[in-house]
Design brief:
This protein is an alpha/beta fold. The protein has a single domain, classed as Rossmann fold, CATH 3.40.50.720. The protein is 39% helix and 16% strand. It is built from 7 helices and 9 strands. It has a 7-stranded parallel β-sheet, sandwiched between helices. Strands 7-8 form a two-stranded parallel sheet. Helix 1 crosses helix 7, helix 2 runs parallel beside helix 3 and helix 3 packs parallel to helix 4. The longest helix is centred in the middle third of the chain and has 26 residues. The radius of gyration is 17 Å and the shape is globular. The protein starts with 19 loop residues before the first strand and ends in a 13-residue tail after the last strand.
């Protein structure tokens, strides 16, 4: 049922041996990289997405989420990567339908999946990793709905960490910056985007899905047993930089 093996370029050490993991958004670049790496590290991975994954689930549909979680049974690790991305236009022109769609998938969906999985985890504990964004801390232009939803994911992650610690569930977030995935690879390779990364990212490039997956692995594995309510930012230093004087 969506069991994946083999993460290209990663040293495998069985850090998740014997664990059962659910990865949402697994048909996307980041979710797919997480599922691949976790499988290579020994986890039994259940890969879910709205389409293109072994398990089909719309995270905005609570009944579908509950049915998915029930079908899996025991879950030790959740990485919730399912999300809508991108802008919807300048704030004054954002249609209410777009606002509700982004909040419904990105924030309500995070609530649905995390609560359903946490209820299944509370008898044995576990680790939940949400995928936020540097837009959880700062705003890019013309993306109000996305930015608001990702700020909400950060707040929800911290609230869950506080409430779920008593039942042995850790909750943390990975906040990616610009990450090259199949849907944006051509755009990110263009001269204007390469120039933008050179100006805005201290490492002067975009990351890749496995950069995010490795951060999620650290938060998911048992060696992080005292880490909860935390954020690992994977952005090449973008949030650390106020401005840069060109060389």
């Amino acid at each position: 049922m969506g069991h994946l093996r083999g993460a290209r370029g990663d040293a495998v050490s069985g850090r998740l041996a014997g664990k059962v993991a659910l990865v949402t958004g697994a048909a996307g670049g980041i979710g797919g990289a997480v599922a691949e790496l976790f499988g290579a590290e020994g986890a039994r991975v259940h890969a879910a997405d709205r389409a293109g994954a072994a398990l089909v689930c719309d995270v905005a549909d609570r009944a579908a989420v509950d049915a998915l979680v029930h079908s899996i049974g025991r879950i030790d690790i959740l990485v919730h990567a399912a999300a809508l991305t991108g802008g919807t236009g300048a704030f004054l022109d954002v249609p209410a339908a777009d606002w509700h769609r982004y909040i419904g998938v990105n924030l309500d969906g995070t609530f649905h999946v995390c609560q359903s999985v946490a209820r299944a985890m509370r008898s044995h504990g576990g680790s939940i990793v949400t995928i936020g964004s540097i837009n959880s801390f700062a705003a890019e232009p013309a993306a109000a709905a996305y930015v608001a939803s990702k700020h909400g994911v950060l707040g929800l992650t911290r609230a869950m960490a506080v409430d779920l610690a008593a039942v042995g569930i850790r909750v943390n977030m990975v906040a990616p910056g610009p990450i090259t995935v199949p849907r944006n690879a051509e755009l990110f390779a263009s001269a204007p985007l390469q120039a933008m990364f050179g100006r805005m990212v201290p490492m002067r490039r975009a990351g890749v899905g496995h950069d995010v997956a490795r951060a999620a692995l650290y938060l998911a594995e048992d060696s992080g047993s005292f880490v909860t309510g935390s954020v690992v930012t994977v952005d090449g230093g973008a949030l650390a930089q106020i401005f840069r004087v060109d060389d």
